[in-house]
Amino acid sequence: MTKKLYIKTYGCQMNVYDTERMVDLMSYEGYAVTDQPDDADLVVLNTCHIREKAAEKVYSDIGRLRVLKTKKIKKGGKDSILAVGGCVAQAEGSEIQRRAPVVDMVFGPQTYHRLPEMTKEAHKAKSEGIRPQIVDTDLSVSEKFDSLSKQAVSQKKTAFLTVQEGCDKFCTYCVVPYTRGGEFSRSFEDVMKDAKKLDDAGVLEVTLLGQNVNAYHGMSAQGVEWTLANLIRHLAKETNFKRIRYTTSHPQDMTDDLIAVHGEIEQCMPYLHLPVQAGSDKIVKAMNRHHTIASYRKIIDDVRKMRSDIALSGDFIVGFPGETDADFQETMNLVREINYAQAYSFMYSARPGTPAADRDDQIEEHVKAERLAELQDELIRQQRAFNDTSVGKIMAVLLERTGKEAGQLVGRSPYMQAVHVNVGNRDMVEQNFDKLVDMKIISAGPRSLKGELISK
Ligand code: SAH
Ligand code: SF4
Ligand code: F3S
């Protein structure tokens, strides 16, 4: 009988990638995915520690799962294993089980390849009447990728490929260097092996992933160091991928050569996610970001020279300790000047163990909230304006999922905008699903576009 796995993903695309790999791993152990935690033999929460809210959500979810499980067992249902993985697990380790004894297993982003063994161990302990208290938060990355490379690849036409992990930058607000460990680039051969598999499976779009993906510096067996720019060039030449994307980049590692790729490689999509976090030199310095506002501006100018239509995206933090109204207005000015196609913005959240959390000039919550609202108003206005410029254009859209309405498909434009299209009947859905289709954009909203098929 097949066993069931319920897995919930919080946080960033690295976690989405890790979840896919865990599903692959457990499928070899006879586990099929279920969307009902009640039905599962193994429940995994793949968690995020980036902001307090994200981390606290995990504990409320554990509470809910505990109630479900107690009810189920009372009714004579089978017991299940509850595992907490990801970045909260890495940061808090066995503290999780102290706070929530119902948790059987805790493992970090660099140890999830041992999930099958850990699960067996937990089942064995339970069958002997012992409470399994497994904690595995080792941080060495290469062993993980070695064991994952034996696994299957996803069936979708758009796929993530992790090329780099971890971070050495230590921005003063951020937990990632502690939860994901130091910067690690996979070897050129390993990356190409995975790329080949995706290519053979007919993948059309690949997104190269890393916390600092443009810091990629994988070695080849010949001892040659590969940059991200050269990796993209090589993938464009040696594979059939129609679209290549990469995320997330740091301004410090945005080389002229990588900027040049945007003008040179057709498959490199006209979209760049390049977080600046704040618009004041004082604040980015206090954040330990290793770039200035002038250097960021220069990068944006250069990228736009290469690809004038490029869609720019970024991340912003408002209310970093010591941020004055004037500092915040510098962020607003920068945003108005750059004109983003899309962006993410957050209130600063003090995270345990990070230097900024110890500062005594923390900003009051209501001030952060006001600043966030002002910034988000402007960002959404810009996004809307960007979307409006798409109306009337013909764009290639990768139709990657079905929509809410019957006969509807949803995909992404080259600029990462979500595009909805009503293709008509079920035959047409089948015919266009997972295809890269030219489409005319007929209307725009703040968060998505509507398109129609161009009759051939
Ligand atoms: N490695 C990427 C992204 C890291 S996390 C980069 O350096 O750009 C994603 C985003 O979360 C960050 O860009 C930042 O905007 C936000 N973030 C990180 N720590 C935060 C904190 N303590 N409070 C609020 N936002 C935070
Ligand atoms: Fe965090 Fe900064 Fe590293 Fe990004 S570069 S992961 S924000 S420490
Ligand atoms: Fe969150 Fe970990 Fe990603 S803290 S943002 S899941 S790297």
Topology of this structure?
Blueprint lengths: L2 E7 L3 H15 L3 E3 L8 E6 L4 H23 L6 E5 H7 L2 H5 L5 E3 L7 H13 L6 E3 L5 H7 L9 E5 L1 E2 L10 H4 L4 E2 L2 H13 L4 E5 L7 E3 L5 E3 H11 L4 E5 L8 H9 L6 E3 L7 H6 L6 H14 L4 E8 L6 H14 L3 E6 L17 H26 L3 E9 L5 E5 L5 E5 L3 H7 L3 E9 L3 E6 L3
Parallel strand pairs: 1-2, 1-3, 3-4, 4-5, 5-6, 7-10, 10-13, 14-15, 15-16, 19-21
Antiparallel strand pairs: 8-9, 11-12, 17-18, 17-20, 18-19, 20-21
Helix pairs in contact: 9-10, 10-12, 13-14
Bound molecules: S-adenosyl-L-homocysteine, iron/sulfur cluster (SF4) and FE3-S4 cluster (F3S).
Q: Any guess at the CATH architecture of the domain at 3-138? A: 3-Layer(aba) Sandwich
- Biggest sheet descriptor: 6 strands, parallel
Rg, Cα atoms, Å:
23 Å
Q: Total strand count, please?
A: 21
The unique ligands bound to this protein are:
S-adenosyl-L-homocysteine, iron/sulfur cluster, FE3-S4 cluster
| Sequence of strands across the biggest β-sheet | 2-1-3-4-5-6
Full CATH superfamily name of the domain at 3-138: Methylthiotransferase, N-terminal domain
CATH fold field value of the domain at 3-138: Rossmann fold
What are the segments in which pLDDT stays under 50 over at least 5 consecutive residues? none
Mean pLDDT: 94
Report, as a whole number of angstroms, the end-to-end distance. 48 Å
Shape: globular
Helix content: 25-40%
**Strand content of the residues, in percent?**
15-25%
Question: So how many helices?
Answer: 15
Q: Which CATH class of the domain at 3-138 applies here?
A: Alpha Beta
Helix/strand-derived category reads: alpha/beta
